[in-house]
Amino acid sequence: MTPQKDEMSFLDHLEELRWHLIRSTIAVLIVAVLAFIYKDYVFAIIFGPKEGDFFTYRMFCKLGQLFDYESVFCSQELPFTLQNRTMAGQFSAHIWTSIWTGVVIAFPYILYELWKFISPGLYENERKLASGFILIASALFFLGILFGYYLIAPLSISFLGSYTVSDEVINQIDLSSYVSIVRSSVISCGLVFELPIVVYFLTKLGLLTPSFMRKYRRHALVIILIVSAIITPPDVTSQIIVTIPILILYEVSIFISKYVIKKEEKRKKSEL
């Protein structure tokens, strides 16, 4: 630790944290304003999974044709329309979509500010990992975002938008409900893909070990299945699609935890 940080009082740390939060908020607001101005581009992306010719539907359609199976994804149009039933509905959707767009795009900078706050309490060699940490955490987050956008959101929209209890009922989906499905699918996947980073820090803090993760692998599988059921529509195919990458991330996290433990042991031996 640096002497300057050691001498800082609790209130000084709070003041420093406040400025990190302020800079992060400003970054989010700047991107949110741009997203608000260029709403046509933002909502074109959000409404993408509503179109019958979306990339994911075409991919599953071709996959079905490959196995000589008539896929429901080959339909050129999803059987529902969007509507707005409140006076401020569209404006509210515009505002909140812009804010969440700011959070997603500014995520690497938010991580940078977070790292600047916690790095003074780390060792010199750990502070050198800052660029790598921000790069890997951002890459995992955006990989999760793409996974949610191109797989979870389309599967959820296709299943829920076409589900009917009777031909007497027409699906007219409220705008806020549709945007909520896309947002929750995308952001939840982005956060789930941060699992290796969480495991890294928990191992550094001594709260997690590779042996613990191996021992409770079956319990983790149950939790993963529950998470998959929460962020996907209630059909087996979607849950399997989500479960597989999370299981892979869990196994990768075990190796990360093992690597951290070995590094700590080498550091302690070198100090002795």
UniProtKB/TrEMBL annotation:
Keyword list, A-Z: Cell membrane, Membrane, Protein transport, Translocation, Transmembrane, Transmembrane helix, Transport
Report the locations given in the UniProt record.
Cell membrane; Membrane
Gene Ontology molecular-function annotations: proton motive force dependent protein transmembrane transporter activity
Q: How does it sit in the membrane?
A: Multi-pass membrane protein
InterPro entries linked to this entry:
TatC (IPR002033)
The record's Gene Ontology cellular component field reads: TAT protein transport complex
Report what the protein is called.
Sec-independent protein translocase protein TatC
Native source species: Capnocytophaga felis
